[in-house]
Specification:
The protein is an alpha/beta fold. It folds into 3 domains: 188 residues, Rossmann fold (3-Layer(aba) Sandwich), CATH 3.40.50; 185 residues, no CATH class; 123 residues, Trna Endonuclease, Chain: A, domain 1 (3-Layer(aba) Sandwich), CATH 3.40.1350. Helix content is 46%, strand content 14%. The chain contains 23 helices and 12 strands. Strands 2-3-4-1-5 form a 5-stranded parallel sheet, sandwiched between helices. Strands 8-9-10-11-12 form a 5-stranded mixed sheet, sandwiched between helices. Strand 10, helix 22 and strand 11 form a beta-alpha-beta unit. It is elongated, with a radius of gyration of 26 Å.
């Protein structure tokens, strides 16, 4: 114990290195934060991301022992309780016992305390900032005055704010229209772990999962740090999922509703959109969403869709050779997809429900699409694995639906009377289009004669419809590669778990 105390008091740099090493992944975020902290100007840094993704852990582990002031907002607390909490933090850092009467006085107390300090960088960390903005508190105006009229004019203030209420963070801080407009100097989105980071996490926790199990885990709960922290290393992935999601009192049984209510005001509207998108795996247009949800087509819907995308629950994309007005929205959050497929409205689950579900028709249908979604989260790894990262490329999808007139026209080629779609293609600058076939399998994936013909028919349809002169190159994305047969030998590019788990 004495040795530990010595290191903390006399070797702070050593301790910072140790704490940084405890952070899984987050290399880019760490690099950026270090750069901003070391800058020669005051910085206003907003950290955001979905609930339980690891925002607070990142800041605390990276900067522990360096804070000039740190406090955390209290959920569903009155202004008086928030100010009392502020006074406790002031007492801890400055031995200031006074309870401020309002937030203007609170920030003045903080600025005066800092002004008495010696030269050097001052790191202020306010966590769960949205919870401080209680009704009639005028918190935002006080924060605005603190930054615009004091901190901004110094060169030593590093104000870091963080919050899980994403819509509030985006509207009131990052995209603010009032006095804080364009005042945030840097914003950092903390995303769920990649497969690579998830593997690092499990390895650090003493798990002995193979990559197949890690993929199965990722398909169900994604790379959300908190969800992964609930896994026990003496259970298989399937056993953990069963305990967390399909057992009475399981910690993720009611997570979905908590998740959206913590992130967004009027969460019901967000859930309606997510629910609608969960029914159409390949994406919906804005008009489709309006028709399905009955939401009004106005700026509020635009904001809602933007916020869902910024929180990485959905993605928007323009299909191949389509216009911006044809943009599609697709649900890509792994846990939400899993929730709607297996948890919502299922009632009481039988013993070992999830283990018994594996291998059934509903499981196979879900796993195929869930793996495709995992691939969409790892486009960079796929592109690098294909060896085309040096070319300009645009990942997108393609779909063709013949009109009634086309179907009834005897002069039109029969091939054009049949619809088809490609879930992922990469339009490249080197006169090539890579068509990706994403296939989930717990062993080598076997292409049979029928599926080979299906792929060739789609390529022919794509060429006929789009009149492209580019070379069409088929690539398969599978966990374990392809079973070596005559059809596999025709495939020139394969992406496996080895590529998907790479650090980019």
């Amino acid at each position: 114990m004495a040795k530990s105390r010595f290191l903390y008091n006399f070797a702070p740099e050593y301790n910072r290195i140790i704490m940084e090493k405890s952070i899984i992944g987050r290399k880019e975020e760490i690099t950026r934060l270090k750069k901003y902290i070391a800058s020669d100007r005051s910085e206003f840094i907003a950290i955001y991301g979905r609930r339980r993704v690891g925002k607070t852990f990142l800041i605390k582990e990276l900067l522990e022992g360096q804070f000039t002031f740190r406090m955390t907002g209290k959920e569903n607390a009155r202004m008086a309780d928030q100010l009392l909490n502020f006074s406790y933090a002031m007492s801890d850092f400055f031995s200031e016992e006074k309870v401020p009467k309002d937030w203007t006085e609170a920030f003045r107390m903080l600025s005066k305390a800092i002004e008495k300090m010696k030269e050097g960088t001052k790191i202020i960390f306010i966590d769960e900032l949205p919870w401080l903005d209680t009704q009639k508190s005028k918190f935002i105006s006080a924060l605005e005055y603190f930054w615009n009229n004091w901190a901004y004019y110094r060169s030593d203030i590093k104000l870091i704010v963080c919050g899980s209420a994403t819509s509030w963070m985006l509207n009131k801080i990052i995209n603010a229209r009032g006095g804080l407009h364009n005042r945030v100097t840097h914003k950092i989105l903390v995303s769920p772990f990649t497969l690579h980071e998830t593997e690092l996490y499990f390895n650090a926790g003493g798990f002995d999962y193979e990559r197949q199990e890690i993929i199965d885990c990722y398909m169900a709960v994604g790379g959300v740090a908190y969800y992964l922290s609930l896994f026990e290393n003496d259970k298989s992935v399937a056993e953990n999922i069963n305990a967390l999601c399909f057992t009475k009192g399981g910690e993720l049984c009611d997570e979905f509703d908590k998740l959206f209510k913590s992130l967004f005001k009027k969460a019901d509207n967000y859930i309606m959109v997510i629910n609608a998108l969960s029914t159409v795996g390949k994406g919906m247009t804005r008009s489709d969403i309006i028709e399905k949800t009955k939401l009004t087509n106005n700026g509020n819907l635009t904001t809602l869709l933007n916020e869902l995308e910024q929180c990485e629950f959905i993605r928007s994309f323009v299909p191949f050779k389509k216009e911006k007005k044809d943009k599609l929205y697709q649900l890509v959050d792994q846990f939400s997809l899993f929730h709607f497929h297996f948890i919502k409205g299922q009632g009481i689950f039988t013993k070992d429900y999830w283990m018994k579900k594996i291998g059934t028709a509903s499981y196979n249908a879900w796993s195929g699409y869930a793996f495709e979604t995992v691939c969409l989260h790892h486009i960079d790894q796929i592109v690098e694995g294909l060896g085309i990262s040096g070319t300009i490329n645009r990942p997108c999808s393609w779909a063709y639906r013949p009109t009634k007139a086309v179907k009834e026209n005897d002069d039109i080629d029969d091939n054009l009377k049949v619809g088809g779609q490609i879930d992922l293609l990469i339009d490249r600058s080197d006169k090539t289009i890579t068509v990706c076939e994403m296939k989930y399998s717990d062993g080598e994936y076997e292409i049979d004669k029928a599926y080979d013909k299906h792929v060739q028919d789609r390529l022919r349809l794509f060429r006929d419809v789009e009149k492209t002169t580019k070379t069409l190159q088929v690539a398969y994305v599978t966990p374990h590669g392809l079973y070596n047969n005559q059809y596999a030998r025709k495939v020139k590019k394969q992406i496996t778990a080895e590529h998907l788990f790479r650090q980019i």
